[in-house]
Design a protein that fits this description.
The complex is a heterodimer of chains A (298) and B (204).
Chain A: E1 18-19, H1 25-47, H2 50-71, H3 89-117, H4 124-149, H5 161-181, H6 184-187, H7 190-213, H8 217-228, H9 231-253, H10 258-281, E2 284-285
Antiparallel strand pairs in A: 1-2
Helix pairs in contact in A: 1-2, 1-4, 1-5, 1-10, 2-3, 3-4, 4-5, 5-7, 5-10, 7-8, 7-9, 8-9, 9-10
Chain B: E1 4-9, H1 18-26, E2 37-43, E3 50-56, H2 65-69, E4 75-77, E5 83-85, H3 95-99, E6 106-107, H4 110-115, H5 125-131, E7 139-140, H6 146-149, H7 156-160, E8 166-170, H8 177-184, E9 200-203
Parallel strand pairs in B: 1-9
Antiparallel strand pairs in B: 1-8, 2-3, 4-5, 6-7
Classes of the chains: A mainly alpha (298), B alpha+beta (204).
């Protein structure tokens, strides 16, 4: 059945595909801040860039909670979200987020003011904080993908590729940030890494589209929405062309150019934001029951 | 222990929406919020065109995905199988809404209450009395009218249905009306491939 023949019932009283509308743009922005900030923090931690670490922590500790609270129905009770780490990725993520911000800021303080505070760089504490904050950063980089893929209701989300996408985007944006912030000599080795990550992102998108197309009717409908409706220009233009192809060409053609590295980073950020919003918009619920004897499978 | 469930007889449903109104009245639901909906679907071409009505409701799944993802434990299952939401614990994160394959969760927005039942901003004394049970911002859903079930009554939608298209009872009791109907008329759950084990069945 072609996309134009499918019934999208929206919030009407007709049977058909229903758009996911519970997680809106403010949730997408919260996801963007978390993955961007955690990625920049993680890569900066590995590259010993104090500025990058601070920038990552600020992004995670401001934008992420702000947009999450904006989305939350009862923000004053949001602390309760950390009560069920045994079963909810939201709980696990929130605990990971708090732990990353806590250990991250302590590590930054130990790095910046260690001598004044009498903390020796050779003592075990900074090293412990570094390992702990890196571990929690990985949790923040990936947990949102797990929270989405845990939902069997929305076919396109219910895939192992979604957490991998979160991690890949987070890492590649972290590397893009490091390429802008670090001196050329220090950042040189990251160019090949970025090219590999961009290749990984391209393969991830192919896998997601392929899996969706051959998956449940809901997942296939989401892929059709992405490729055959007005969303397609955003997908091809921003997510693929600006977010992956342009940065790859820049990394490959002019790896040491600071201005082009900034353009590449901005283009990647644009592609990432578009993808995050699109993946929320194309999520659909399947018709719960079809009594139509003439209807064929999607 | 009982395992409460419901059967929808699609041959009997005439799409009158009496169940929808009874539910809204029993549960004091604000404008635009429904715990049950009767969806319609047309098929065929003239002169063989037809229209069917598909009542929908929370399926009170045995393996409820909404309960699994709830970060606060606000969603829980009672001993009789009714899936409930503890209004005091819900933070309105909507995780349950995106996890429910049947799209049966509704977030109660403050604006829903302010609109008034007639959409003119006036709150009637009936609404004022009923809205007190909800906290704006929380996510709610059908609870099979648990307040009625607790005193031995059927849910409001079942009592109101003029064609007996909704049959409620204990699915563990082989002699109960819904069990018999599921057995004799090959009741099928909605979206069985989602593995949620719904306690709501459809017969045709």
């Amino acid at each position: 059945m072609a996309i134009e023949d499918k019934v999208f019932s929206g919030d009407t009283l007709r049977s058909g595909y229903r758009f996911q509308r519970h997680w809106d743009n403010s949730m997408a922005y919260a996801f963007i801040f978390a993955e961007l900030g955690a990625g920049i923090f993680f890569v900066s931690l590995l590259m010993n860039s104090l500025l990058g670490m601070i920038m990552g922590l600020v992004l995670v500790s401001t934008g992420k909670p702000y947009f999450h609270l904006a989305h939350m129905g009862v923000p004053s009770r949001s602390w309760r979200a950390m009560l069920r780490p045994d079963r909810s990725w939201i709980s696990r993520g929130l605990l990971g987020l708090g732990a990353m911000i806590g250990t991250g800021f302590l590590y930054v303080i130990a790095l910046a003011f260690g001598e004044k505070l009498g903390i020796s760089p050779d003592s075990g504490l900074p090293g412990l904080l570094k390992v702990a904050s890196a571990t929690f950063a990985i949790v923040v980089m990936s947990y949102q993908g797990f929270a989405m893929s845990h939902s069997t209701a929305i076919g396109i989300w219910n895939s192992a590729i979604i957490p991998m996408a979160s991690l890949l985007y987070s890492l590649s944006l972290g590397v893009a940030g490091a390429l802008v912030l670090l001196p050329a000599a220090q950042a040189g080795g990251l160019v090949d890494t970025q090219l590999l990550l961009l290749l990984g992102l391209a393969i991830m998108h192919v896998m997601l589209l392929h899996g969706g197309w051959h998956g449940s009717p809901g997942a296939r409908t989401s892929v059709e929405l992405l490729l055959q409706t007005s969303y397609s220009k955003w997908f091809w233009g921003l997510v693929i062309a600006a977010g992956i192809v342009l940065p790859a060409l820049i990394m490959w053609g002019a790896p040491g150019n600071r201005l082009l590295a900034i353009i590449s980073g901005v283009a990647m950020l644009g592609g990432f934001c578009a993808w995050r919003i699109l993946i929320f918009k194309i999520g659909v619920y399947e018709p719960i029951l079809s009594m139509n004897p003439f209807r064929t499978a999607g | 222990m009982a395992r409460m469930g419901m059967v929808f007889d699609l041959k009997a449903c005439i799409g009158c929406n009496a169940c929808v109104i009874a539910c809204k009245q029993e549960n004091s639901l604000p404008n635009g919020v429904f715990f049950t909906k009767t969806l319609s679907e047309e098929y065929g071409v003239f002169p063989m065109a037809n229209r069917v009505f598909i009542p929908t409701i929370c399926n009170h799944c045995e393996d409820a995905p909404c309960e699994k993802v709830c970060p606060t434990g606000a969603t829980y299952t009672r001993e009789d199988g009714i899936v409930m939401v503890d209004d005091d614990k819900c933070i309105g994160c909507s995780s349950c809404s995106v996890a429910c394959p049947y799209d049966q969760r509704t977030q109660m927005e403050e604006s829903d209450f302010l609109k008034g039942l007639f959409g003119n901003g006036e709150i009637t004394p009936f609404e004022e009395d009923g809205y007190g049970r909800y906290t704006p911002g929380t996510v709610t859903k059908c609870d099979f009218c648990s307040q009625r079930v607790d005193v031995g009554l059927d849910p409001a939608c079942v009592v109101t249905c003029p064609t007996n298209a909704r049959i409620f009872g204990d699915l563990d009791d082989v002699h109960s009306a819904p069990s018999k109907m599921i057995r004799e008329r090959h009741g099928r759950p909605p979206l069985p491939e989602k593995n949620t084990k719904p306690k709501v069945f459809y017969v045709n």
